[in-house]
Specification:
Layout (H helix, E strand, L loop, with lengths): L11 H19 L5 H8 L7 H8 L3 H23 L2
Helix pairs in contact: 1-4, 2-4
């Protein structure tokens, strides 16, 4: 009969690197222009707010949330890429 494997315990190095990645992402999100930091933070909530809630919270039209989100994420990707490959 098979005995289940114990859950994997991350190494100290894995824990450190994961925290470093989270720190870099948090700092980079905070450096985004305009409403991007608030929008990205709201979208990362669990559960994420609806577009209606975001519209009310951020004072922006519902129809502009998706395009703004796309621009913010593109900017975030560019900044994170620059951070990793200066």
């Amino acid at each position: 009969m098979c005995t289940p494997l114990p859950p994997a315990v991350p190494s100290a190095e894995d824990v450190y690197l994961a925290e470093q990645r989270r720190r870099v992402v948090r700092e980079t999100v905070a450096a985004l222009p305009g409403r991007c930091p608030q929008l990205i933070a709201a979208l990362a909530e669990d559960p994420p707010p609806t577009y209606r809630e975001l519209s009310e919270r951020l004072g922006m039209p519902r129809g502009s949330i998706g395009p703004t989100r796309s621009r913010c994420l593109a900017c975030l990707r560019m900044l994170l890429h620059a951070e990793r490959y200066p």
